[in-house]
Amino acid sequence: MHVLAGTASTPLAEKISRELGNAPLGIPFTKRFPDGELYLRVEGDLAGEAAIVVQSTRTDGDLVELLLLEEAVRAAGAGRVVVVIPYFGYARQDRRFLPGEPLSARALCRHIEQDADAVVTVDLHSSETLRHFTKPAFEASGIPALARRLQARPVDLLVSPDRGGIARAQRMGAALGRPWAALEKKRIDSEHVELRFPTAHPPEVRGRNVVLVDDVIATGGTIVEAARLLRHEGARSVAAACTHGLFLRDAFERIKAVTDEVLATDTLVHPAETASVAPDIAAIVRQAIPA
Fold first, then answer.
1. SS3 for 193?
2. Is the pLDDT of residue 74 over 80?
3. Which residue spans within the chain are E strands per DSSP?
4. Does residue 92 carry a pLDDT above 90?
């Protein structure tokens, strides 16, 4: 078994390699041609070996690199290819809102699985995306990694910034043995929201150590408003935790200014404190590769 690291996920690939019993780690040679095209070469003999390709697809360039890397390991003779996509970009559009729009999630699934025998993802925008794969596809959760990291700090209450994340808050609460709650959100525009506690059963916040739990933090607008609300209600401490830390523009700095800690898994490279999903991915990879 060999682990091949894409440039977007090299640190995570190194951890997955260790979790798989120090499986040989390959870092492909890459360079850019003068016209901007990517050149990639996989070195070493993969004949008959299982190849674990690890690459997040945050950008278009990351996606092209993943497709080239898959083709390269096939050409190098890999007997089985498992593609690990820690952060699956373009998966958010899984339905058409206007005529003529592509289902980008489905389109990418079709291309990615062409040179793959199995695919492993982490916390998709919608688990329905897995149905677009015709080959075995698995979804790891970032919750166990975050829970392992949060066990080292006091946590009294888990809060989802909106009702769409209730299942996530429930699962984190179960992992830590703590209660959970969900805020009610009204979106004003792409970067501004209004938040409030549910009127029926508002949680007790004063004097408690609260952790906001989300799947993706992008612009940070929702998390910032949620943290301010919790501070106003008297929370002793406020932390923000997510699986995918995009932290666009100045999002990380704005969140850091209103929280005590910002935590995200290592599906992406970011400035936040890190919780590793490597053990969870490695466990699924072992399932995907028959003994």
1. strand
2. yes
3. 2-5, 25-26, 29-32, 38-41, 50-54, 80-85, 118-122, 137-140, 157-160, 180-182, 184-187, 193-196, 209-217, 237-245, 261-265, 273-275
4. no
Q: Which helix (H) or strand (E) holds 73?
A: helix 60-75
SS3 254: helix
What 3-state class would DSSP assign to 150?
helix
Q: How far apart are CA 27 and CA 8, in angstroms?
A: 11
pLDDT digits (tens, 9 = 90+) for 205-240: 999 999 999 999 999 999 999 999 999 999 999 999
Residue with tokens 């995570």: 12
**pLDDT tens-digit profile of 93-111?**
777 888 888 889 999 999 9
- The full set of domains in the chain, from first to last, is 2-140 (3.40.50.2020), 143-275 (3.40.50.2020)
Catalytic residues: 185
Q: Cβ(273)–Cβ(261) under 8 Å?
A: yes
**CA separation, residue 81 to residues 106, 242, 248 (Å):** 20, 29, 32
CB 248 within 8 A of CB 223: no
Cα 97 from Cα 117, distance rounded (Å): 32
Phi/psi at 144 (5° precision): -60, -40
Spatial CA neighbour of 87 closest among 212, 214, 243, 240: 243
